[in-house]
Each structure stands twice: as C-alpha cells, then as structure tokens.
Amino acid sequence: MEEVTSKQQNREASKKPQTEAQAHGYDPNKYERPSVTVDVVMMSVRQKDLQVLLVKRRSWPYEGMWAIPGGFVNMDESLEDAAKRELQEETNVENVYLEQLYTFGDPGRDPRTRVITVVYFALLDSERLHVKAASDAADVRWFSVYNLPPLAFDHAKILDYALSRLRGKLEYTTIAFSLLPEQFTLRELQHVYEIILNKEMDKRNFRKKILATGILEDTGERKMEGTHRPARLYRFNPAAEHKL
Amino acid sequence: MEEVTSKQQNREASKKPQTEAQAHGYDPNKYERPSVTVDVVMMSVRQKDLQVLLVKRRSWPYEGMWAIPGGFVNMDESLEDAAKRELQEETNVENVYLEQLYTFGDPGRDPRTRVITVVYFALLDSERLHVKAASDAADVRWFSVYNLPPLAFDHAKILDYALSRLRGKLEYTTIAFSLLPEQFTLRELQHVYEIILNKEMDKRNFRKKILATGILEDTGERKMEGTHRPARLYRFNPAAEHKL
DNA sequence: CGAATAGTGTCTTTAAGACAGTATCCA
DNA sequence: TGGATACTGTCTTAAAGACACTATTCG
C-alpha cells in the first residue's frame, strides 16, 4: 500500500501541479525523499580471470578510490533502462545479460545525503567487449574480482554479493553462455565455470554433463590454435533452455 | 559511482545546509527525486492454505482495491527497518523471517508520482500470528495466494514473484521452518511443502529425505489430536543448517 | 616423431522415486 | 474392534564423481 500516513513531516515546498494527482488531493512533495541511483556491476571473463569494471572517483566523497559505475535514475526512465544507460556510458556493447541484483539503502552509506542504490548485474562476453575510450583511460579499469583495490561506499559488500549470486546461478541457469562469444569450445566453457567457481573440474564429467543436457549445438566448425588437435566449436541453443 | 553528472535539471530549491556535504560543494537537491516506499509481502500457511495479508485502500488511486501493505521509507531508517516497521504496524509478531525480494520502479506504476518500491518478503508462523485489530477489521484480511482479489498497482506481479521465490528457496534452504511453530510433526512440515509447491508428495520419501539431513531434532514429545496414534514432535536444529 | 591439447568410457556411489503393509491411539 | 493417522523398508533408476588412455594436429 503506497498510502499517505501522517508520521512524516512536510519538509519540502510544493512544486508545479501534477494534474491528476493533485485533483485527488495528493501532494507528492509531502515527504522528504531519498536519492535513488542505479549502479551496474559489469563482469567479464578475460585473460583467464573473472574481472569487474570499476571507475575512479574524481570528487568527494571517496575521491580517488575505485567504485562501481552508476548514476541517478531519471524521473521518466525505468530502473532497467537506467542500468542500460549506465552500461552504454561505460562500454559500447548491446544485448548483454542484465539482471537486478539487490537494493542497498542503509542511511549513512553515502555521506552526501540519503542514497538508495538499486544494483544491476551485467555479464559481458570478452569478444564483443571494448570499454569506451572515455575522458581518461586511467579512470576506468578492469580488476580481478580476486584482487580488488579498496572500494568506495559499501561497494566491496556489493561485489561480494554479486559474486555469490553469479556462483549460485551458474549451477542452475544458462548464465555462463553470456560470458562467451557465439561460438566456443567445450574447454572454453569449462574454463568459465572453473574461473567463476574458483576450482578445477574433471574434463570428462564436465563434457558428459553439458552434452547430456542438449543445450549445445555442434557448429561443424573447429578452432585451431597452437600445434595440436583442433577443438570443435559449439553454440548455445536457447531453444533447449529448459535443461540444466 | 554515485557521481553527479550534468544531464538532469535542477528542479528543486535547496534546503537547509548539510554541513559536510555542502562544504565539499555537493548539492543534494540538484536532482528531482522519486518517492521510495517499502512494501511487505506477508505470507503464512493457515487453514491448509498459503495466504497473504492484504489491506484495502481507502483513497485514490485504486480506492477500495486490495494492496500489499507498505509505506514511505523514513530518511533515517534502513530499508529493512522500514520493512520491520510495516510488519509491526499490521501484526504484532517479532523475529519473523524477512528478506528483500525485489525493487519495482517502472514510471507510471503509481499515478500519483514516480514511486520506487523496495519489496520485502516476510514469513509468519501460524501459531504466534495474530493480525492487529486495526482501525477496521474489514480493511485487513488474509487471502489465499491461489484465489486473489483484483489488486492495486502492479501488486499482482509482485505476488507472482514472491510465490516463485518462495518455491525456489523451499528446495535448498530451511525457509519452511519459519512457517511453523517451534514444535511440529513431520506431517505438518510435509503439508507446508505440499501447500506451497501445490502438489502431493510421498510420505515415506519425504520423511526419509528430511530425516537424512539431520536438521530435525526429536523433542521426545508427542502431539495427540483426534482418535488415532499420536505423532512425534520435532524441532528445527539451526546448528545443522548446512544440509538440505 | 615429439609436443600439445582434444576427445572418449566404465565403474562406483549417492540420491530420488515408486510402492504397501504394520503400529498405535481413541471411542 | 473399527476408524483414523503414524510410522517403516526395499527395489529401481538416474545423476555425480573418480579415474587413464587414444586421437589429431603442427612443426
């Protein structure tokens, strides 16, 4: 129930009329409002490592520290649209995996004012990905999630949470495929699992299990690199999503 | 990064100074802010049914329709504290299971103004529970999740989401115990599973599986009701949380 | 033919599921 | 002793895990 109760105080002056609402005697400015931001945790598997994109803060608070990219939500855009906008401000990829992660809103988490942040989680495949050559390249960088710098705000907690969500979903969803290009070898897929779960897996059991689900389609092509037998290239078959 | 960019307009007049923030040249009123509410989906297993507590709206919008209880977040309380406050406004139970569910914030979901709602999910055990005799008993009621009235806002979508979360977590967490009193029979536990998953389960396999995990402790007591053999009473052993 | 990675099969163990009869209490 | 629910065990099937050798390519 988004009902007006009488506990809070009116601390804001009223603004321009919002026709229908005001016709019903509803004053949208009756309560003091927190700021709402959307932060986007962008992860990718690169260089045999699970990495996250961070930006260096250029002003108070936490000036010079690294932080998860984010920004205010516009009044007329959905939370997901705000997340997509942030994503495009930092990278130039589209159609990435994007889900809402959690909302963090403890008073005091931001010294400026009360800030509630809705955190989204994006997974980028290493191939299509290139970070925008923003103002200053030194201000936007990939970091290993296993070796993070000191982080601004409560962002260390947020990354912990993102990693555990990723690990959980890896087991019962097809989330891993969003970290790979369209075609990939079984070994590459296994590496994604191993890097995220941070443990080695048995090659034979892994292949058996994945192939048994029927979510992979043999492309007929092969990937040759180095001086050894080439590997088959597979592609994810979304039609067989159900299994796993 | 909760960084001030220059895209949005300054539509609010500044308020009283917030010392540290303003000393750093940060103006907390630079952006128009959405309203933030916390809604709490309260569910319980009662009368062999999974039920949710709803309140009847007394004013525009959606006047007379049923809605999930909720309210504005105070500037100095955490989101979880706001949820606990809502919980206590409607019921008089403490120490209930409470988790954050999801944040809904589409523009237009509330005709009054932009409202972003952080939804929490509470599970109440049927024994301790009694709804507060609020202003008017007819305005607060339990409904079967399998037979809901028309709901205000996007609340039908929210309840769908809550139910699927509950079903998912039932399988790999000990969430079911928060719907039962301290002592319960295996049959009662099985009924909780059956009611939530909406399917019958085999008694022998269910008991075998639950007992094998070691999360139950035999109290030595028995529950007698009706003219038949009494059932053993168990209690949940949180020390053995890991299994399941 | 040596180096390097791709690719394959069997056995064991564990968990899940199908299935029916005996035990205990009360009236 | 009849009615009602508690309680129990075996067999089958499927999934997970341990484990080692052959195949193919390039230089």
UniProtKB/TrEMBL annotation, chains A, B:
Domain of life here? Bacteria
Matching SUPFAM superfamilies: Nudix, Winged helix' DNA-binding domain
The Basic and acidic residues compositionally biased stretches are 9-18
Please verify whether the record's keywords include Hydrolase: yes
Name the UniProt key words of this record, in alphabetical order: Hydrolase
Q: Which Pfam families match?
A: NUDIX, WHD_NrtR
From the UniProt record, which GO molecular function terms apply?
hydrolase activity
Ranges where the Nudix hydrolase domain occurs = 35-166
Keyword Glycoprotein tagged: no
Which InterPro entries does this entry report, sorted A to Z? Nudix_hydrolase, NUDIX_hydrolase-like_dom_sf, NUDIX_hydrolase_CS, NUDIX_hydrolase_dom, WH-like_DNA-bd_sf, WH_DNA-bd_sf, WHD_NrtR
- Region: Disordered; residue ranges are 1-32
Q: Which family does it belong to?
A: Belongs to the Nudix hydrolase family.
Mind telling me what this protein is named?
8-oxo-dGTP diphosphatase
Name its species.
Thermosporothrix hazakensis
